[in-house]
Amino acid sequence: MTALVLGVFLASAAGKPVAAGASGDDWDLRWMVAPPSGAVAVAPPPRATPELRALGRTLYQSRCAGCHGERGDGAGRHAPRLAIPPTDFSRGVYKLRSTPTGSLPTDADLFLTLTRGMHGTPMLPWTALSERERWALVLQLKSFSVRFREERPALAIRVPPPPKEDAALRQRGAELYGKLMCARCHGEAGAGDGAAARAYQGSLDGNVPARDFTRGRFLRGVEMEDLYLTLRTGLEGTPMAAYDVLRDDEIWALAAYVRSLVRERPFYDLPPARTHARAPVTEARPAALFARNKPRQ
Question: What is the number of structural domains in the chain?
Answer without folding.
Answer: 2
